[in-house]
Amino acid sequence: MKLPKISFSIIATLTLAAAVIDALNGCSSSQPDDSQIAAAQAATAITRTTNHSTTIYLVTTGSATGSGPRSAASPPPSDSLQALVDDAYAKFKDDQSGTNADYIPYLASVPSELFGIAVVTVDGKIFTAGDTGYTFSLQSCSKVFTLAEIIEESGEEEVLKKIGVEPTGMAFNSITALGLHDNQAINPLVNAGAIASVSMVKAGSADERWNKILAFESSFAGEPLKLIDEVYRSESDTNFRNQGIAFILYNGQHLFCNPLEACDAYTKQCSIGVTARQLAIMGATLANGGVNPITQQRCLTARHVPRVLAVMMMAGFYDESGQWAYTAGIPAKTGVGGGIVAVVPGRMAIVAFSPRLNAAGNSIRATEAINHIVRQLDLNLFGSVQ
Ligand code: DON
Question: How many Å lie between the centroid of ligand 1 and the Cα of residue 25?
Fold first, then answer.
């Protein structure tokens, strides 16, 4: 897919910047001189993106105060983005590899054919294809937002000390990983660390803990999210391994409330229902420096956002996190419900949902679709791989 040669001026009054960008893009016959470029750069950020054979210069508003995202570039034009989302959907729609998770009985009954892709940009534009209105369970994607909650509430240092941020390199429900680290979870995105995370939420009762978690996750979606009761019951009836993990953490003094209360609140957060569209808004809130791009509500202090994204980058795909970083190069989080939320800081969130998983518990078509969009738009944070 080729993107047109374009120039953007986000603030219309920045005519000087626009003139410089026009010249850089070759839209103007006159070349900008050094003083024009310096003046434009003082007010804006200029970014060069090379997409296939086309070079695009983009101008965005600067963020010297740190209150907004460290923006790299604006999203591509709406037509191109919708066409790309449609293209990703068509390309992977017929891939039937993998199987639904079945250790949570409800998940085995979710129609395997479901497939949806949603992109939400930091300026609130939404692009969708496929089954983006179907409500599925957040599962491990919920861990990201509860991590954000405890960083917001207790601070970055406290989370580092009480849980840790190292990738385990092991399966999401590994007990071996606990054993290797003196029964400390070491990462908030594996089950043990996520159970420890919910136990860090400051609450005087089980109800208060759950209500705080649900409200925090909902703020990222910009609307009240609800528990899928059938998922919660199915998982509660079978979550003996997670209960065991909670007791191991508690025994090692690495859990900060009653173990069964922690496990139950964790099970509930995994059972929160979202559509791909809602999850993309949640991700776009992280992409937008902690401000929900639809409601404009600040959900997370801007300086906490990079911490959350760093943990996603290192551990969002569990024992496939290295492979994900190697291929896509953007932070993302998967869930056994089939959802994956990926974040391009300062630009957009890309979400895909498809219930069939690989052996690591990551959705196959969702991984493929997001990877495709990342490649086509050259979004790898580490540099161009074109
Ligand atoms: O605790 C569990 O096993 C599930 N509620 C969540 C696991 C999960 O989503 C792993 N992700 N890919």
Answer: 47
CA atoms of 107 and 205, how far apart (whole Å): 29
DSSP designation for 115: -
Looking at residue 336, its amino acid is V
Q: At what angle do helices 141-154 and 206-221 cross, to 10 degrees?
A: 110
Q: 139 in ligand 1 pocket by Cβ < 6 Å?
A: yes
Residue 172 CA: which ligand 1 atom is closest? Answer: 10
Ligand 1 and 137: CB distance under 6 A: no
| Cβ of 60 less than 6 Å from ligand 1 | no
| Alpha-carbon radius of gyration of the chain | 21
Residue the block writes with tokens 């956002």: 305
Q: Which two tokens stand for residue 215?
A: 């409200």
Residue-wise pLDDT tens digits, 179-226 = 999 999 999 999 999 999 999 999 999 999 999 999 999 999 999 999
What atom of ligand 1 comes closest to residue 194's alpha carbon? 1
Instruction: Give the start-to-end residue ranges of the domains of the chain.
Output: 10-67, 83-377
Q: Please report the atom of ligand 1 found closest to the CA of residue 173.
A: 3
The answer, as to whether pTM is greater than 0.90, is no
Beta strand 272-274 with 136-137: parallel, antiparallel or unpaired? antiparallel
Third-level CATH fold of 83-377: Beta-lactamase (3.40.710)
